[in-house]
Amino acid sequence: MSATEARGGAGLAAAPAGDGRSATVREMTYLEAISDALRTEMRRDEAVFCLGEDIGAFGGAFKVTDGFVEEFGADRCLDAPLAENAIIGAAVGAAVEGLRPVCEMQFADFISCGFDQLVNVAAKLHYRQGIAVPIVVRLPSGGGFSGGPFHSQNPEAWFLQTPGLKVVAPATAADAKGLLVSAIRDPNPVCYLEHKALYRHVRDEVPEGEHAIPLGEARIARSGDEMTVIAYGSSVHLALQAANELDEDIEILDLRTLCPLDRDAILASVRKTGKALVAHEATRSCGVGAEVAALITEEAFEDLDAPVRRLTAADVPIPFSPPLEQAVLPQLDDMKEACRELLAY
Amino acid sequence: METTDASVVARERVREVAEQPLTREDRANLFRYMVMMRASEERALTLYKQGKVPGSFYDGCGQEAISVGAAFVLGPMDRMCILHRDLGAHLIRGVTPDRYLANFMGRADGVTGGKEGNMHFGDRKLGCVGMVSMLPDMALVAMGMALAFKTRRERRVAMTFFGEGSTANGQWHEAMNFAGIHRLPIVFVLENNRFAYSTPNELEFAVDPVERAHTYGFAGVNVDGNDVEAVFEAARAAADLARAGGGPTLIECQTMRMHGHGAHDDMRYVPTEMHAEWARRDPIERYAERLVADHGFAPDEVEGIRSEVRSYVEDCAGKAVASPMPDPEAAATGVFADAFEPLGDGHAPWSLWSQGQSGNGNAPMERRPA
């Protein structure tokens, strides 16, 4: 696996179709790209269906499935009762019988109520019994809008501790589509983290029709030689903004997939720059940053010119009040400061 | 999701099934599978005592009529999630005792190749998704299979088992509620074996679970779980109803777990007289008597089935003991799937499934029209 270079340089411009063919692109938001991926796959394959709370006539809490009932019928955009274990469990059963369920957790936080089915049933069925479980669990995640402790979490580390789950966290609209398409086609359970702050604020060019990005391939979001920021989801945008404002020669590696992790891309970038900052909005201890830092020190210690640094949320629940929340979640100034410090080391 | 045509066809089918009595061979098979379950479990217990079974040992002694009677109604394309007291259902679907015994011993030829222990297995090639220890998680998975059948307008049924203990868990409510809302083609078989490990019924619930079924919008049926034909009849009616679009049924089977929760459990919490009372209702001995008294079997014939099964299980045990331990390298394999493979179909020994059917199994009844 290798990192694919984004065309059109730095910033939010999306890579066109990965195979180099020129695809018709349309500018859309991150949220529209998620809807587009679902629509494309549901049109392509009648086994694909959506299952979740308030996703039918209401179109979902964030309107990802707006208009789906009209196009696909209520059976394929199924309103579930408020029962997350039932949503995941029903998806597992339907999947082993040949359907391709895409579950929506109304907020990523509520996966805790379906956790048993996800980590004990879905994640382990193939290892235990050779039964593939092709389900996608969409997880609107992340904070920054006073959602409080139960509507703001970034739970990816929970899943990364569970062998058998793939974990995806797109940063751009093009990736939101391409990775969701691949997640739906993957024969394994995939946790798809969609950061709520990106829904309507990130907009880039997305290939129309067929567009799949392989799971497990990171992307160089910005090329540079002096240091690498390894990020995913919303932190990619924070890093891009910081790098542009600092006007420094910073490389930004967008992981895109957290499991499987693109170890080669991480090591290649760090070997080039000699300095690494791992940035994420999730809490600090035993998070992705810890894993990536361990990987770098184990495999590329000789190439380092500085200690590996982390920029993460503090190890506290996400508080409600704006000044408290901002104190916990990494802000632009924190990112700039972390980059400055590492560049100066 | 229901179509008129399908309902008409299904009603015809219900009538046809209702007129279909158990044949003599069916009754012999019901007896045979119950005896095979007990003989296999007794053999496994011996292997455990010989130190050949890592971990503990769990069986369904006294509950044979439930898994055998219920599973016997299913067609090849129906699907099951089977629990740890339900070996009879695995045997009916086609898992042979050697693979069961090898699984208990952690051998390479066990159903899971050593990845999983004891009864935590399900042969996907025989249409079964094996259990997890969290109960009643599989009720939700079976419900999902039923959702797929209904969505695709297939005349198929999902069946799952759970004990009365797991009706205290929230996931039981989630399964009942969801299945009721969508009138899913599923048969819930509840085995009330009097104890959740050591906890008696009176500390498990204030209202018997079967009483709760109607609050979810479907019927609850109470049957003698030690009467294999009673269980069969209840399961048959429930499966027919499900195929006809009538939704789920909860069948509560009254029984008694005659052994401890596991072989390590001395059952000190079970009153002696209670155990003795249930021993008099042993499902295998009762059915042996009934075969002779009501169905024209000669005593020799019944004994013949017993000895034939014992000898078969002994051969299976030899095969299982000869199976190698798994290669340690296998431990790191199979975390992720490379491709999706559908479940296979199970065996369906009820004579109905081999009589007057075009093609094999549930076809063409259970497939949607092309």
Short structural description:
The complex is a heterodimer of chains A (345) and B (370). With 345 residues, chain A is of the alpha/beta class. Helix content of chain A is 35%, strand content 20%.
Total number of domains of chain A: 2
CATH superfamily descriptor of chain B = Thiamin diphosphate (ThDP)-binding fold, Pyr/PP domains
Helix content of chain B: 40-55%
Order of helices and strands of chain A: EEHEHEHEHHEHEHEEEEHEEHEHEHH
Amount of beta strand of chain B: 5-15%
Instruction: Please describe the biggest sheet of chain A, giving its number of strands, its sense, and whether it closes into a barrel.
Output: 7 strands, mixed
Strand-and-helix sequence of chain B, N→C? HHHEHHHEHEEEHEHEHHH
What's the CATH topology name of the largest domain in chain A?
Answer: Rossmann fold
Question: Helicity level of chain A, as a percent range?
Answer: 25-40%
CATH level-3 fold name of chain B = Rossmann fold
What is the strand arrangement across the widest sheet of chain B?
1-2-3-7-6
Which short descriptors sum up this protein?
heterodimer, A: alpha/beta, Rossmann fold, 2 domains, seven-stranded mixed beta sheet, B: 370 residues, alpha/beta, five-stranded parallel beta sheet, two-stranded antiparallel ribbon, 12 helices, 7 strands, 9% strand
Structure notes:
- The complex is a heterodimer of chains A (345) and B (370).
- With 345 residues, chain A is α/β, with parallel strands linked by helices.
- Chain A has two domains: 10-15 and 22-207, 3-Layer(aba) Sandwich (Rossmann fold), CATH 3.40.50.970; 219-344, Rossmann fold (3-Layer(aba) Sandwich).
- Chain A has helices at residues 30-44, 68-72, 84-96, 115-122, 125-129, 156-160, 173-185, 234-246, 263-273, 288-299, 322-328, 332-344, and strands at residues 4-5, 25-29, 48-52, 77-79, 100-104, 136-141, 166-168, 190-195, 203-207, 219-222, 227-231, 250-254, 257-259, 276-283, 309-313.
- In chain A, helix 7 (173-185) links the parallel strand 7 (166-168) and strand 8 (190-195).
- In chain A, helix 1 packs parallel to helix 7 (173-185) and helix 8 (234-246) packs across helix 12 (332-344).
- Chain A starts with a strand and ends with a helix.
- The longest helix of chain B is centred in the N-terminal third of the chain and has 26 residues, at 24-49.
- A five-stranded parallel β-sheet of chain B has the order 1-2-3-7-6, with helices on both faces. A two-stranded antiparallel sheet of chain B has the order 4-5.
- Chain B has a single domain (4-326, 342-353), classed as Thiamin diphosphate (ThDP)-binding fold, Pyr/PP domains (Rossmann fold, 3-Layer(aba) Sandwich), CATH 3.40.50.970.
- Chain B has helices at 4-18, 24-49, 64-71, 87-93, 97-104, 137-151, 170-181, 209-212, 228-243, 272-279, 283-295, 299-322; strands spanning 79-81, 158-163, 186-192, 195-196, 199-200, 219-224, 249-254.
- Classes of the chains: A alpha/beta (345), B alpha/beta (370).
- At the A-B interface, helix 3, helix 4 and helix 5 of A face helix 6 and helix 7 of B.
